[in-house]
Amino acid sequence: MVIAEIASLNAQIAATDHVGRRNRLFKQRDRLFDAIDAHPERLALLRALLEQPQPSVRMAAAWRCAQRRVLLEEAKRAATELAERPKEIGQEARAWLDRGAGIPPWRQPACRAKFEN
Description:
By secondary structure, the protein is mostly helical. It is 76% helix and 0% strand.
């Protein structure tokens, strides 16, 4: 059920150009991921999302795994497979990999060490 809701929201996000509407849809999707995070079977649910046939669901799950620092190897594997695809999903996956598996540069250990010293 959650997978279908995330897929539906991803389709709506892709279909709209209105920034405010896109932001509201992203927030709705984040609330679904928050519900997953609160679930006792959180890792199993995220793993299931990473294995979904819908590329947008897999990419959204990879981003969430990176944000929460869980299942990073599985997320990287999903993004690597998606990076081979053309168009927007491939570009997003390549960007995710280029950023160091979805971790913003300022949160990566090498960068953080510069600021902590």
